[in-house]
Design a protein that fits this description.
alpha/beta; Glucose Oxidase, domain 1; Enzyme I, Chain A, domain 2; TIM Barrel; 3 domains; 8-stranded mixed β-sheet; 25 helices; 16 strands; binds phosphoenolpyruvate; binds magnesium ion
């Protein structure tokens, strides 16, 4: 039995057999005879034809949805498929090496990639991503793997991976995946957030997990405390069973709060809503008693697909969510692509600092033709419920004004075409870049609400990459600098007559609830599973108690001091939640 420590990413405990997952395609080498060469060539030709058909299909859909320019991006892919030199090298390689065609093909492509990566020619360097993509498509077709679906076997498993992208996590199915563990990653990576949404316990940043856990090993995952026990012995299994029952019991108790308001003992009420990534999660929002959706991360509609979502598809998604949640509000955040969420059809070049790069509103403003489609869909859906619109990663007034200009143009187009749209769609901004936090007085007159995105605000304010496990100890939501920023945003927002909410992970941490309530936050939006916990804390106290907690917390000098203080206060008002972690 060994116990591995990591970063708690999504709460809950689970036990099951380990399934090692590698997102990178594995090409095995297999010896063949000279007689088998023609058969290998036929397999390769079939894979090429299938790949060509898939790419032409993507091009067609892109051309219809976005115009020929976007479709043309794939011309480079088609050129690789028709490359005669590659074909000749492949046949010669088969003759010479007498190994399977995947292995010969991959050797050649890897050589091409090496040359392209080193070249000084910028155009050729940019083609690396195209070649890499074609490589994966051909290999998938050769290996007979259409998509890398996670945990679709018969038996539920614990996924063990070096890393998982948010889009891979989004494919997980609760019925098949009991929990997951990764070697790297941070607490507020979108992979962790997605796991929480799916209510799948997860531990990330477990150094060496993929080396120390073997296929089929029995493992216990404690996503609340960040622990992984490999090949557990009887006492650990008993402890796990006890913990499992305690979680279930607590969930049952908390569900009694489902229809009660999020208000303090002296009737100070706040709005307690939930975050979603996909429309399917609305059931969980309702089941956990959240009042509407405070953050719909719409970029997930763009992931795990070879093309971009059409206006009609997006319209249907937003309309469905709006109708199911009304009369409560749904805050639709325009796409926050980039960072750790990448768009497959566009083959964007990789960046050194993706979280500080071409992301969110920066991407939307640079690609107005994609942005406009989303805005049209949102405006059209606005008449079907109580929708609000929010822009991510605003760093100053110009971006907000430019986004609003495009929105108004789109609104005019729709009205002229006789489409009904809501006149009074409320616009808000996320406050997640320190510059925006410092400019709240200037942003306030242009919006109706602020929503504090602490996941990013913390990483930018403390200069701590949110997905890097090596510096995770520095990612401190309780850091005094973060507390001061939060106070300033709430105070300046209120002075400017805007509502101030929070939709970062901090809003769902019971330990933070007293502080945030005391700072004067108007609304909280958290992962659905966290909503009952936060409500429980709010309903346990007088508002003045929270205010005094916030005041005292602001006088402390380090993140550790603030954390110990908040934990002690939470223990005072809700000891059973502290037992849970
Ligand atoms: C945030 O940054 O706090 C936030 C809610 O947005 P995301 O986690 O999607 O970056
Ligand atoms: Mg963010």
């Amino acid at each position: 039995m060994i116990t591995l420590k990591g970063i708690p990413a999504a709460p809950g405990v689970a036990m099951g057999p380990a399934c090692l997952y590698r997102s990178e395609l594995r090409v095995l080498r297999r010896a063949i005879t000279a007689e088998q060469i023609p058969g290998e060539i036929t397999r390769f030709d079939e894979a090429l034809n299938r790949t060509r058909r898939q790419i032409l299909d993507i091009q067609k859909r892109l051309a219809e949805g976005l115009g020929q320019d976007h479709a043309d991006i794939f011309n480079a892919h088609l050129l690789v498929l028709d490359d005669h030199a590659l074909r000749e090298e492949l046949e010669a390689g088969l003759q010479k090496q007498l190994v399977n065609v995947e292995a010969v093909f991959d050797d050649i492509i890897q050589r091409y990639l090496k040359v392209f990566r080193k070249t000084q020619d910028e155009y050729l360097r940019d083609r690396t991503a195209d070649i890499e993509d074609v490589r994966k498509r051909i290999l998938r077709n050769l290996l007979g793997k259409q998509t890398d679906e996670l945990g679709r076997g018969n038996e539920p498993v614990v996924i063990v991976a070096h890393d998982l992208s948010p889009s891979e996590t989004a494919q997980m199915h609760k019925r098949h995946v009991l929990a997951f563990v990764t070697d790297i990653g941070g607490r507020t990576s979108h992979t962790a957030i997605m796991a929480k949404s799916l209510a799948i316990p997860a531990v990330v940043g477990v150094e060496g997990a993929t080396n120390r856990i073997h296929e089929g090993d029995s493992v216990i995952i404690d996503g609340t405390h960040g622990e992984v026990i490999v090949s557990p012995e009887a006492p650990s299994i008993e402890r796990y069973q006890l913990e499992h029952r305690r979680h279930e019991e607590l969930d049952r108790q908390l569900l009694h709060l489902k229809d009660l308001p999020a208000e303090t003992l002296d009737h100070h009420q706040v709005l307690l809503a939930a975050n979603i990534e996909l429309p399917e999660e609305v059931s969980s929002v309702i089941a956990h008693g959240a009042r509407g959706i405070g953050l719909f991360r719409t970029e997930f509609l763009y992931l795990n697909r070879p093309d971009l979502p059409t206006e009609e598809e997006q319209f249907q998604a937003y309309k469905t969510v709006a109708e199911r949640v009304k009369p409560h509000a749904v805050v639709i955040r325009t796409m926050d692509l980039g960072g750790d969420k990448f768009l497959s059809p566009m083959q964007l070049p990789s960046e050194m600092n993706p979280f500080m790069g071409w992301r969110a509103i920066r991407f939307s403003l640079a690609r107005p033709e994609i942005f406009r489609i989303q805005l049209r869909a949102i405006l059209r859906a606005s008449v079907h419920g109580n929708l609000k619109l929010m822009y991510p990663m605003i760093s100053g007034l110009e971006e907000l004004e430019r986004a609003n200009e495009i929105l108004e143009e789109v609104r005019r187009e729709l009205t002229q075409a006789g489409q009904p749209v809501t006149e009074s769609l409320e616009i808000g901004v996320m406050i997640e870049v320190p510059s925006a936090a410092l400019l709240c007085d200037l942003l306030a007159p242009a919006v109706k609400f602020f929503s504090i995105g602490t996941n990013d605000l913390i990483q930018y304010a403390l200069a701590v990459d949110r997905v890097n496990e090596k510096i995770a100890y520095l990612y401190q939501p309780t850091h005094p600098a973060v507390l001061r920023l939060l106070k300033q945003i709430v105070d300046v927002g209120h002075a400017g007559k805007v509502k101030v909410g929070m939709c970062g992970e901090m809003a769902g941490e019971p330990m933070m609830t007293l502080l945030l309530l005391g700072l004067g936050l108007d609304s909280f939006s958290a992962s659905p599973v966290q909503v009952p916990l936060v409500k429980r804390v709010i309903r346990s106290i007088e508002h003045s108690f929270a205010e005094s907690v916030a005041q005292q917390a602001l006088t402390l000098r380090t993140g550790k001091e603030v954390e110990a203080f908040l934990l002690a206060k939470l223990k005072q008002v809700a000891p059973d939640l502290v037992e849970q972690g």
